[in-house]
Amino acid sequence: MLDNIKDFASDFFVTGDPLIYGADVAIVLTMIAVVTALTYFKKWKWLWQDWITSVDHKKIGIMYVIASLLMLFRGGMDALLMRTQLAVPNMEFLSPEHYNAIFTTHGVIMILFMAMPLMFGLFNLVIPLQIGARDVAYPFLNSLSFWLFFFGAMLFNVSFVIGGSPDAGWLSYPPLSELSHSPGVGQDFYIWGIQISGIGSLMTGINFIVTILKMRAPGMKLMKMPMFTWSVLSSCLTIILAFPILTVTLALLFIDRYLGAHFFTLDSGGNPMMYINLIWMWGHPEVYIVVLPAFGIFSEIAATFSKKRLFGYKSMVFALMSISLFSFFTWAHHFFTMGSGADVNAFFAITTMLIAIPTGVKVFNWLFTMFRGKLSFPTPMMWMLGFIPCFVVGGMTGVLLSVAPADFQFHNSYFLIAHFHQVLIGGVAFGYFAGLYYWWPKVFGFKLNEKIGKWAFWLWNIGFYVCFMPQYFLGLMGMTRRVSSYGWDKGWYELNLTSTIGGFLMGIGFLFQVWQILHSIKFMEKDTTGDPWGGRTLEWSIPSPAPMYNFATVPRVSEKDAWWEEKQRIAQGLAPTPKPQLEPIHMPKNSGIPFIMSACFFVAGFGFVFDWLWMAIPGLVGVAACMLYHSFNYNTDYYIPVDEIKRTEAAAGRAV
Amino acid sequence: MAQSGNHSVANPAGHDEHEGHHDLEALRMMGFWIFLITDCILFGTLFATYVVLHNNTAGGPTGAELFEMPGVIAETFILLTSSFTSGLAVLSMNRGDRKGLIGWLIVTALLGASFITLEITEFVKLVHEGAAISTSGSWSAFYTLVGTHGLHVSVGLVWMISIMLQLGRHGITSVTRRKVNIISLYWHFLDVVWIFVFTIVYMMGVM
After folding, report:
1. Which of A112, A228, A585, A614 is the most exposed place for a label (fewest CB within 10 A)?
2. Whether A99 contacts A82, CB under 8 Å
3. Model pLDDT for residues A524-537, shown as the tens digit of each residue
């Protein structure tokens, strides 16, 4: 009996590596600390009522941001472990197996569990406020999306200590990811973790499309929407067309592994290249999904801190929408080496190059927005200025990669690694940081310390170039991705060491950001105006943080940059637009179902990972029960009375 | 009377559709249309996979050898008829006839259930004849595509029953009306998908 338990435990838990034991201890201690703190301060009820069951988009947005910053920490640790292993030749810090697991989880976490939720966090925090709405179209579904992401991410992360991490690369190409080559459970953690959070992403896409199309303030025509709203619309349209492909692809891989089917196997008529085509039909649009909102953020920031209207509004809209369309016709450029022939490669090379055109249009629009503007340079604007040269270089190396014959040389080398990190860090990460700094006062009601923020900016920016510029050269020198070690004879030592130093500089930059947040919480500098930057769009017209119903009366919009124009009118001595009378506000009730249903998904996923039907089936039954319970519940909303609105507005210093 | 949302609370302001209070039922209907787009992509991906893999039989049995068209044609007509009866259910609802509505929904669900029964019988028979999901890439693609459609129909059945119970409890309100419209839309959609399954998998398979 005891031996049985021992056998089980040694299979179930990851053993043998001191780094993992250290992590085990850290995880257990953190959990004990969290539980103790919540119990000691009697915060369980607060956690459940105010956060877990909340359907308020602002709170869901904050939870997304916190979760994604934690994931940024984990993905960043993975990156630094890799860079340490590669710092000098023949390093024996990580074993090759461990290295494989780490580059896999680094990629998955950074794209799916860091970039995506940080993006959804910004959608939630900003979109309803920016379009003058009181919530998203489906608040319940919004909460469900968050908890599906959360439990999907937990399922993926738990593989680190239980069962073993996936180690077949971030896109898990078969046949390596098939049962024949990856018999462990890591690959199943990969499938279920991404599948569960992917369902959430799909629903968020639907939710925000309907929110933007249907819930804008009266008078806000499509061509009067703020540019961030446009970018979210284009990103969500891409989500709803791309994510179903991911769902199917992962399901097929699972059916292969679980039921012994032959979609992507090497024998019995399977075709591994089918997987690679399908996964990139999702994967390529996916990178545009994450970068389009960053473009929107930069457009807002460029206009606000230049005190000018965004240059080329229509061309910007056209650029965003054409990128989301073209993103579906470039996938094969990820494997020009597949051997699909000159015609196919030429087609995908040209579509890839075409995308550079709308992107170039955007860069010029931002530059012309700043041209002859009244510029100021607080942290959000610094990130914007750091982004432009970085993204231009990253974009141009992308054009180099799109040249199919040349790609045979660049393919899977460090040149590629440097390219996509340059667009994903320089574009996406810088963009979301800029957005966080820009909207932070609106979300939390206090400003972040500028001085520490600038330190963080410079560390990130310099660290970035020190880390990734050498990698272009390493790639041209023949260093391929995913190698865990190299010899002294290669001549790659100096550049790799430089790159590692750059990686750690970015790590220090992250620590500065954490310090910045903690410092700003301690020496809180409250934003009493609701409009600390001199903003242009509607979110700046209400108090910071926004009251739970957002707008006491729904604003009326007659032009672009509605709030800026209103301020101009008031400055000229004209009467402000009269506000309609207060009315009771219709709000959705909180619900625990999203949390419980997502937890059931987690149980089902965990059961499938270990092939425990006794666990998977109750999990699925729980999911179905939650859906039916919600369908039969007709008591889901309430009204906020006028008195309460008056009290809330008066407390925020607003006349009503 | 405001019946916005999944709720039965009376609106204290006492009037309908004022500024900022969107018509939630219309919003939900639109969301479902967008969901159907995503479902189209899902089936599109499965069809593409089937088209790529359907000749990869690895020396095993082919669809042309094993498909039995009479059963498949029966399934097709049953599902087409159920689409028609779900339309009749909506017409009854629009007349305000709750009994007719629930009656036609029951007929639709029974037809759906017999479709599923026939499909499962067909699958069992195919497996006995040596064509299981693990036989070859071709059969993997077949079972996954046709099975996903069957799974959709089965989920629709549970959903339809739950809506009938809600109709029994609440009658025809703006909420239940939207739910019936959505399930009927879903049912027609599955019918359209089946027409593609019938054409691409079965007809082109035996021709």
Report:
1. A614
2. yes
3. 888 888 999 999 99
Cβ neighbours of residue A630 under 8 Å, at least 6 residues apart?
A140, A591, A593
Give the residue numbers spanning the domain of A572. 42-580
- Give the containing element (helix H, strand E) for B22: none
In three-state secondary structure terms, A543 is coil
CA A284 to chain centre: 15
Per-residue pLDDT, averaged over B38-64, amounts to: 95
Any domain includes B101: yes
Considering Cα of A500, then A504, then A505, then A507, what sign does the dihedral take? Answer: positive
Judge whether A5 lies within some domain: no
CATH number at residue A484: 1.20.210.10
Helices (H) and strands (E) in chain B, counts: 7, 0
CA angle B183, B184, B186 (to 5 degrees): 65
Number of CB atoms found within 10 A of residue A73's CB: 15
Confidence band (pLDDT; 50, 70, 90) for A131? very high
- Pull the structure tokens for residue A562: 């509605």
Q: Which residues 33-52 of chain B have a CB within 8 Å of chain A?
A: 34-35, 37-39, 41-42, 45-46, 49, 52
Phi, psi of A621 (to 5 degrees): -60, -40
* Nearest-neighbour CA in chain B from A407: distance (Å): 26
Nearest to A245 among B6, B7, B45 (CB): B45
Q: Is the pLDDT of residue A499 over 60?
A: yes
Q: What is the tally of structural domains in chain B? A: 1
Compute the average pLDDT of residues A618-634: 95
Residue A137 placed within a domain: yes
H helices present in A371-484, as ranges: 379-402, 404-410, 414-423, 430-444, 450-476
d(CA A207, CA A205): 5
B5 lies in some domain: no
- Classify A585 as helix, strand or coil: strand
| Cβ neighbours of B46 in A, within 8 Å | 248
The interface predicted TM-score of the complex, written ipTM, equals: 0.93
Q: Does A655 have pLDDT greater than 80?
A: no
Contact between A461 and A434 under an 8 Å Cβ cutoff? The reply is no
Indicate which CATH number applies to the domain containing B137.
1.20.120.80
Percent helix, strand, coil in chain A (nearest 5)?
A: 70, 0, 25
What SS3 state is found at A588?
strand
Is residue A609 one of the residues assigned to a domain?
A: no
**How does pLDDT run across A544-595, given as a tens digit for each residue?**
999 999 999 999 998 999 999 999 999 998 888 888 888 999 899 999 999 9
DSSP H/E element including A503: helix A493-522
Q: Which two tokens stand for residue A276?
A: 């690679």
**List of residues 6+ apart from A201 with CB closer than 8 A:** A116, A120, A145, A149, A239, A243
Asked if A125 and A439 touch (Cβ cutoff 8 Å), the reply is yes
What is the predicted pLDDT for the residue at A536?
95
Whether residues A137 and B27 touch (CB distance < 8 A) is answered with yes
Q: What pTM value is reported for the model?
A: 0.94
End-to-end CA distance of chain A: 72
Cross-chain residue pair B30–A255, CB shorter than 8 Å: no
Alpha-carbon distance A595 to A301, whole Å? 35
Rounded CA-CA distance A174/A133 in Å is: 45
Tell me which chain A residue has its CA closest to the CA of residue B170.
Answer: A634
**What angle, 0 to 180 degrees and rounded to 10, lies between the N-to-C axes of helices A493-522 and A57-86?**
150
What is the separation of C-alpha A399 from the centre of its chain, rounded to a whole number of angstroms? Answer: 25
The number of distinct structural domains making up chain A is 1
pLDDT at B16 over 70: no
Residue A646 belongs to a domain: no
CA nearest to A208 within chain B: B31
**Mode of pairing for the β-strands spanning A525-526 and A585-588:** unpaired
Q: Determine what percent of chain B falls in helix, strand and coil, rounding each to the nearest 5.
A: 75, 0, 25
Domain holding B38, by residue range, is 31-206
